[in-house]
Specification:
The complex is a heterodimer of chains A (about 290) and B (about 425). Chain A has about 290 residues and is mainly α. Chain A has 14 helices and two strands, in the order αββααααααααααααα. With about 425 residues, chain B is an alpha+beta fold. In chain B, strand 4 and strand 5 form a beta hairpin.
Chain lengths: ~290, ~425
């Protein structure tokens, strides 16, 4: 009897101390998440009470030309951003993992673009790739190559965005570098004694041993790619001809321009389910390719 | 004794309302960030406070745009909205239908204003936009109109008479060809881009004599209207002839794009003012920009938008803003009083000070007294101006028409398909509201 009272007291004390955190989690995370799940089954315009419509919103999604187009665009972002970001990140990490003079300066430079506010960065990037006046086409012109219309050709605009997004590759490079530093030096030494080539060392030692970091990268970058928003929105407003429209931009339009929160919520949950599926896929296959030290 | 009595009465008359009834403070949110407009608003509010000592007005400049009213929406939902809000007029019916507004007409009647007479003081199109379900939910504020601007200097260079602007569509096409220059595969000067600036779907649909909405049957009709179809086809042909991608690249070198994103949010350079684009369809506000930003020797002319043979001559359409009472306002009656003052007496001051076209009929001559002669052309177009369909899905219709237009000029869809898809999608949303 006495024991159980003490136990309850203890639980209450614990609850008291974790209450602020718990309150924040429930109020500002769980409640909005589940509210949006509920709204995705309704017609909801913020100031009017929601009206239940069942799966109507989700059915609508697959008849909506622009949603399908934005889904397709997002798919291309995903296909482009994740692997290219991986290669750029690993190459940067390889370059900067060795200690030499002024290395910390170069590491800082690598990370610098990630610190620049995305808005300022987008403006710079636009001038960089401007078809008429841009730096890239300026160089191409000097080499005698007619520069492509990077930002105004609807077939090229996604590629342009994927290339531009690599300026933030310092972040994943940092993670890969940390993983590389963790690899025991003896492995490299014995490999060198056995006469392994540089490529063999990379392929058989470095790459396998940073796979846990790669798994982490795959999951986070895939989620970010599926929610790609700032760059295409700031730079092109989804254009030209909605060629850079991502699901996140289309969602934003419905939520804040048409006040159509129910439909926007349905979109949000759809893309959440896709993210979940992809993350699960990574976890399921990870046993086969991720090597834990 | 009598004097003293009178004095006491006078004091009581002044003191009682302020002590017992209290001076009421109403909040007014607007998004006019232009310093000229903002200062004028402050001036009008001060005058209002002088004539209405029982009402104090607190002005708050808030972020917001034509269709983005996120701040108002969240504030009203949270019960912290203002008493008066500055809203794009073509969205009044939409916001009223969404339950975001208080019925202004009811408060005006309670205050004893003659609403029917009041309506007649404004242009019909402006009142039409303020009406939803047989009631007015807003009083109109300023308005605008669209016309063709052309660069006289470039006309002379191309051997065209600078005093004869194109009048027909054919002339427009001929002039544009003569005014376009290409060097090494790149445009160095462009004659005309129909969809740039104010050359919207509505602009050309109406110029071609088309119609978008059947008010009686509450049906969108543009996809079946041969003249709207013809207008879109013409835009598509233009895009093909000049290669839309290269035109977009040309515009992007001025920091502009056809999808409306003014790149990087920075103030773009206007290619028309820079003397690189010979003709544009734009609004009367460009006059102020020309005065401020164009080079000293800039010579321009204004003409009605050229129309096809069977199209509409002198066609234009008007937009503009309005004043509303958001739902849950604490002092709706005082707000209604303030809106009445702003829309009538205030609008005259606003027109004179800022050169915005007024919706109040009697403010037009006042404006023309002090405005440059070019403003007259726009003022003359106003009485017959079109307005966008007054429906609760106006923002969606606008965007869907824009999407359809882009799909056509980029050659992604056939005109008939693009318009049909847009019409079906918007009609479906519209039907939810009119049951």
């Amino acid at each position: 009897m006495k024991k159980s009272v003490k136990k309850i007291q203890k639980i209450l004390t614990i609850l008291f101390f974790i209450f602020p955190g718990l309150f924040g989690l429930v109020m500002f995370k769980l409640y909005p998440i589940f509210a949006s799940l509920f709204f995705s089954f309704t017609d909801y315009y913020v100031t009017l009470s929601p009206k239940w419509v069942g799966f109507e919103n989700f059915k609508e999604l697959f008849q909506d030309f622009l949603f399908l187009k934005s889904l397709q665009n997002t798919f291309w972002y995903f296909i482009g951003l994740v692997p290219i970001g991986l290669i750029v990140g690993i190459v940067l990490a390889l370059l900067l993992v060795k200690d030499f003079k002024f290395i910390s300066f170069f590491r800082a430079v690598m990370y610098l673009p990630s610190v620049v506010p995305i808005y300022a960065f987008a403006v710079v990037a636009l001038n960089f790739f401007n078809p008429y006046l841009g730096f890239v086409n300026g160089i191409l012109a000097k080499l005698g190559i007619p520069g492509p219309l990077w930002t105004s050709d609807e077939r090229l605009v996604k590629l342009t965005l994927i290339l531009i997004a690599q300026w933030g590759a310092g972040q994943q490079a940092m993670i890969f570098m940390a993983a590389m530093k963790d690899i025991p030096k003896e492995l490299y030494e014995s490999a060198r004694i056995d006469g392994a080539s540089k490529w063999q060392i990379f392929n058989k030692i470095t790459l396998p041993l940073i796979t846990p970091a790669i798994l982490y990268y795959f999951i986070t970058s895939s989620i970010l790619a599926l929610q790609f928003f700032e760059l295409p929105q700031i730079m092109f407003g989804g254009g030209p001809n909605n060629a850079s429209l991502s699901v996140a931009i289309y969602l934003y339009r419905h939520a804040f321009r048409y006040g159509n929160m129910g439909y926007a919520s349905a979109m949000a949950w759809f893309i959440f389910l896709v993210s979940l599926l992809i993350s699960l896929l990574y976890f399921k296959t990870s046993k086969k390719w991720v090597i834990y030290g | 004794m009598k004097r003293l009595f009178g004095f006491i009465l006078l004091v009581m008359l002044i003191v009682i309302p302020t002590v017992i009834l209290g001076v009421v403070e109403i909040t007014f949110w607007h998004s006019m960030t232009n310093p000229v407009d903002r200062k004028c608003i402050e001036k009008i509010v001060e005058e209002f406070q002088k004539t209405h000592p029982d009402i104090k007005v607190k002005i708050v400049v808030v972020p917001g745009s034509e269709t983005d009213i996120t701040k108002l929406m969240t504030a009203v939902a949270g019960g912290t909205g203002p008493d008066v809000y500055y809203l794009d007029r073509f969205t009044v019916s939409q916001r009223a239908a969404y339950g975001l507004l208080e019925p202004l007409e009811d408060y005006l009647i309670q205050l004893g204003y003659d609403v029917e007479a009041l309506k007649k003081e404004f242009f019909d199109f402006a009142i039409k936009e303020c009406t939803w379900n047989g009631k007015i939910w807003a009083l109109p504020w300023d308005t605008d109109a669209r016309a063709l601007y052309y660069n006289k200097k470039l006309f002379k260079e191309a051997g065209l008479d600078p005093n004869v602007p194109p009048r027909t569509l054919k002339e427009l096409e001929e002039y544009a060809t003569k005014l376009t220059k290409k060097v090494a595969g790149r445009y160095t000067q462009v004659g005309f881009i129909p969809w740039a600036f104010q050359g919207w779907h509505y602009t050309w649909g109406w110029v071609f004599g088309g119609d978008f909405y059947d008010e009686k049957n509450k049906k969108l009709v543009f996809a079946d209207n041969p003249k709207v179809i013809r207008a879109f086809e013409w835009l598509g042909e233009w895009a093909k002839k000049y290669n839309v991608k290269e035109l977009e690249a040309f515009m992007s070198s001025f920091g502009m794009s056809f999808s409306g994103a003014s790149i990087g949010g920075a103030e773009p350079i206007n290619p028309f003012l820079a003397g690189k684009l010979a003709m544009v369809v734009d609004g009367n506000w460009l006059l102020a920009q020309i005065k401020e930003l164009a080079p000293k020797d800039f010579e321009f002319g204004i003409a009605p938008i050229p129309a096809p043979e069977d199209g509409e001559k002198n066609s234009t359409w008007a937009g503009g803003w309005s004043l509303v009472i958001p739902k849950g306002a604490k002092y709706p009656k005082e707000a209604a009083k303030f809106i009445y003052y702003m829309a009538t007496i205030g609008q005259v001051t606003y027109a004179i000070d800022t050169q915005h076209l007024p919706t109040l009929k009697r403010a037009v001559p006042e404006l023309l007294r002090v405005s440059p002669p070019e403003q007259r052309i726009f003022a003359e177009l106003l009485p017959t101006a079109h307005v966008r369909p007054v429906i609760p899905v106006g923002a969606l219709l606008w965007d869907e028409l824009t999407n359809a237009m882009h799909a056509v000029i980029y050659g992604e869809k056939k005109v008939v398909d693009a318009l049909k898809e847009a019409q079906e999608k918007v009609q479906k949303e519209l039907d939810k509201w009119i049951k």
